[in-house]
Design brief:
alpha/beta, 12 strands, six-stranded parallel beta sheet
Length: 319
């Protein structure tokens, strides 16, 4: 990684596009917001755009959350000369949705990511698979710029790291803790962030959890837990991360699989592992990816088909 090349990328006086993957999560949003505040402080401008129906309101406590824009609010002829893509190794429409249409053939791009695998995309790449989160990499970028981090930056980046590591349980927690210790000194509030991210649930989330848990089964002598929701339940808009975490918490379970029918005949799958199985390798077989302990993929077809295909691949890794 050439940090100076990344800093040089920002030597530009027109607005930057900042985006992340569809179904933007805490790390993607935290990294976007951290960059957004840094650009403002350094007299640059950026527009945060995502291709979701609405940004997840769980993160509305973060400074400038209301500045996140939706792709649907853009005209078709809008394009940017420079774009930053965070928390995803690819800028394909499969990952960033219709925001990809805001990139022209002349757009220079910067990819900031920490996931294993992925295509070698981007004019400039700031990718470190040993980082805890994309938000951690944004922290290092700002530090390298010798620009002092503000409390707003610290709050957003701490939230991104806390979300992606599930409060320092996964994804290189040693690095996460070191960075978040510094962010706390710079103004992040660990107690508020933990409460906002992990102790407040909407009615739709609890309803979804109950419906999903009613489908819970154990496979392979209790080593795999599996559960699902249909399209109607998915459309409730609940927070789905808590569901798969419950499935993994069962004694003896090594891998949890959560199938979500995001569209008829399309299953979006969350995979979680205690560490024995690298679920990133499993997910990549189906065009997905993520981390060793937390990954995802999408499988076209009915639920039963997706379950059989994923189980057949998973047992190869379970041993």
């Amino acid at each position: 990684m050439d940090v100076q090349a990344v800093l040089n990328f920002f030597e530009f006086d027109k607005p930057f596009l900042i985006t992340t993957h569809v179904h933007a999560d805490g790390d993607g949003i935290g990294a976007m917001l951290g960059l957004f505040h840094w650009l403002k402080k350094t007299q640059r401008s950026g527009r945060m755009v995502i291709d979701d129906k609405t940004p997840d309101k769980k993160y509305r406590f973060l400074p400038s959350f209301d500045c996140i824009e939706l792709y649907d609010s853009f005209s078709n002829d809008t394009s940017f000369e420079r774009a930053v893509i965070v928390d995803t190794p690819t800028m394909s429409s499969q990952r960033i949705g219709n925001v990809a249409q805001l990139l022209s053939g002349q757009t220079q791009t910067l990819v900031i990511d920490h996931h294993a695998g992925g295509a070698n995309e981007g004019t400039v790449r700031f990718v470190d698979e040993s980082a805890s989160a994309a938000s951690e990499l944004v922290y290092h970028l700002i530090q390298a710029s010798r620009s002092a981090l503000t409390p707003d930056m610290a709050m957003c980046l701490y939230a991104g790291i806390a979300f992606d590591t599930k409060l320092f349980k996964h994804s290189h927690p040693d690095r996460a803790l070191n960075v978040c210790h510094e962010l706390t000194k710079l103004g992040a509030d660990p107690q508020q962030i933990a409460e906002e991210l992990f102790t407040h649930q909407t009615f739709e989330t609890v309803k979804t959890l109950g419906l999903a848990l009613s489908t819970l089964t154990l496979q392979k002598k209790g080593q795999i837990s599996m559960l699902h929701i249909d399209y109607k339940t998915y459309s409730l808009g609940g927070d789905l991360d808590v569901v798969v975490d419950h499935a993994l918490s069962i004694d003896g379970v090594e891998v949890a699989l959560f199938f979500k029918e995001e569209m008829p005949q399309r299953q979006r799958v969350s995979l979680r592992s205690r560490g024995k199985v690298d679920v990133n390798l499993v997910a990549r077989t189906f065009g997905g990816g993520g981390h060793q302990r937390a990954s995802g993929c999408t499988i076209e077809g009915a639920l039963e088909y997706a379950q059989s295909k994923l189980m057949a691949e998973l047992v190869k890794h379970l041993g």
